[in-house]
Amino acid sequence: MKINTELAQKIVESLRDTIEQDINFIDNDGIIIASTDHGRINSLHEGALTCIKEGTTIAINSDDEYTGAKKGVNLPVKFQKEIVGVIGISGELEIVEKYGDIIKKMTEILLREEWINENASADIENKKLIVESILNSKLYELDFLPKNLESDAKNIAVAKINYDALDFSTRKNLIRFAESNFTKNKLYVTFLQNKFIVIYLDSNKTNINEHLKLLINQASKSYNVYLNFGVSSTYHRISNSKTFYTQAIRSQKWSEYKGRKSPVIFYKDMELGLLLTSLDDKDLYEYSYKVLKDIDLNELKEYKELFLLYGKYNGSISAIADEMFMHKNTIQYRLNKLESLTGYNPRNFNDYLVLWFAFFNLKID
Length: 365
Prior knowledge:
CATH superfamily of the largest domain: Reverse transcriptase/Diguanylate cyclase domain
Strand content: 5-15%
Number of helices: 14
Radius of gyration: 31 Å
Strand order of the largest sheet: 2-1-5-4-3
CATH architecture of the largest domain: 2-Layer Sandwich
Oligomer: single chain
């Protein structure tokens, strides 16, 4: 493991908080690549070279004992049984020697943590490349494709996210949570643009549904992120992935419309959603605008809630009034006003359908 200057500087500054002495990190060429005494950076430390050569702690009693060295203690730092550098503490020996082993162990722990993080990041990027190649039909760009990706039954799950609102650490934690709560090597998880994507090598609907709900709960509870997933039909040929990815996107759109009561929707369970998600968003928006344009923007959300409850309770004014904590006369007044503003009476079946389609694509929640 080659230690870069940025990591080395982060280590010495972190350790400096533990003891009130200057700390240096020296590479295997004897060059001080990081130090809390910035004037010593990039200078040769012959004491460290001896430390590396002998593989043991070197105590320095005076500043002129080794070229470029100051009195203090220098210890070899090991990673996977190999010396990767030297950690040095400057100061009077009777003061700094007692810190030597502690600082050495802390340095090795920090290096191990960095290595784990680097490998985790590399694994995440590798899986992202695999998923991206699968969904864009560019498998020829991959040097290696796991055998089970071709042979196992597959389902694709998609949720929309605000990518910029999730930092790398949050995205990594969600990926790790997803992976650790499903059968090993049976899913590929990544973020692509504004989508959170899971490819399941599993056709069991119950397993997938339970896993996605667990993931939704974790995202909401730990990161205040709410997810609605759409899931494709099961398929086998990996070359067909793009088609089934489109299914997942359409299912997600329908799940998003239905809200938190339907956080996971499978493509094969869609009915009316099959029709509505096939329509162009621009056309739907223009339709909604034409029907609802005379309603004040500040009141649209209230009218949408009222209208959806009207459908939920089959026009029962009493049930709507109870849920909205309003008098029945107020509900009647608002329904009449909705008709006055739009020209469509929700009590009439044909007019109800016109209003339902108009509110369908209205993103105001």
